[in-house]
User: What shape does this take?
Amino acid sequence: MFKDTKPHYLLLDALRGVVAMTVVFYHFFEAFATSPFDQRFNHGYMGVDFFFILSGFVIGYAYDDKWKSGDLSLGKFFRRRLIRLHPMVILGAVIGLVTFFIQGSVQWDGTQVPYWHAVVAMVCTMLMLPAIPGTLPEIRGNGEMFPVNGPYWSLFFEYIGNIAYALCIRRLSTRKLAVLVWILGMGLASFAILNGSEYGHIGVGWTMAGNNLWGGLLRMMFSYSAGMLVSRVFRPVKIRGAFWICSAALIAIFAVPHLGKEGTLWLNGLYDSVCVLFLFPLILYIAACGSATEVNAGSEAGSRFSKVWRFLGDISYPLYVIHYPFMYLFYAWCWEDGKTIAQTWPAMVGIFFGCIVLAYIVLKLYDAPVRKWLSEKV
Assistant: This one.
């Protein structure tokens, strides 16, 4: 296996951790929403779009030069990505199955699900095979692609992005990549503004129903390709405080309430489009400049915040993978007798920090050791 020689941009990892935490925060409020219109921390679903653009930048930054130099083959690339992503995919599926059993092995409407159906759903999840609504593996009864661990839909598209990059996108010149990003951006903006989701937002991709599959593919392909484009044209300037600027900007973007009403849903679609097409690339650029500033100053390792940034980056992926099975339990508990936020906030705090602690334990005792072993053996 080859070793990376480029400087590691720690701030980008840290920002991923911040976004992972905001996604957990967003998911808590799903328990109290009657529709996407009254969801608190309303635009938290766009955290996935920022994950995609970060991934595109990191993939382009880490691998583009290796393809050109001949140090990387398709086999090596896919092995590296599988080793990075799939150990947690397997563990998250197991955790999802266990919490489904704890919940009573029932669908959202209370219909009992045979245990072996849930096991089939877990195996399909481990293999990243999405469930079609109404089929045996779709055990929740609400159409989720991966009903033992809902957020896996974004990992499904991440895998598609990796494949598209390795087979096609990496071969594009920067000019052709820019054209592709422009076309995909226009497609995503049209989907959002013309209400392809039927709710005036781009929070799609989690199910195979309706326009979700194509909407999710558009979300991933635009952001992934845009991140790669930024990595190619990136020329850093000195920026101090980039982590705090970017974190504050993202939290503010996610906290904006749903815009528009029936008949004016295009307003929310326009907001989503502006954020994903323009603000997220800008925030990514600022974060990358901040990382480059730290690296060039030789202060990354000695920074007062480096341990915090490293911690955020380390737990970001495990936290994203393991948190949602516990959300299912939280939802069932809240909906049992219509609990309110005032009644449940202590549990929310406990689950939030409990998931962070569990993510760190999983990282140290499972994810990192398994990835190290696989890297040495494969």
Summary: Residues 242 and 287 are 5 Å apart (CA to CA). The chain is about 65% helix and 0% strand. Residues 10-377 form one domain. The longest helix spans residues 341-377.
